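As noted in the main text, all predictions were made from sequence alone. Below is one such record, for DNA-binding protein.
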Amino acid sequence: MKKKVPLRKCILTQEMHPKKDLLRIVVNKENEVFADATGKKNGRGSYVVKDLEKVNKAREGKVLESRLGFDTEKLDPVYDEVIRLIYREDIPKR
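Prediction:
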């Protein structure tokens, strides 16, 4: 019997993707926003696709700002961290 693959909706593209193909963005009780590489940190999670082109386009269009309700100043480091995590995953594992 095949295992069911958990799907989540990307808040940048509004498309459904397997959870493992997405990065989690967390807003915690202290109203801090950060990228969660483990997918297990406490807080309200939203998911973004691991696609540099879509992340950069979302940054230009301020998509996270409108979806999460924070200003650009608070979300710039989040975009940077998401991009860093995407690059880190592109490195072949030995």
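Helices lie at 52-60, 63-68, 72-90. The chain has three helices and five strands. These features were considered when defining construct boundaries for the mutagenesis experiments described in Section 2.9.
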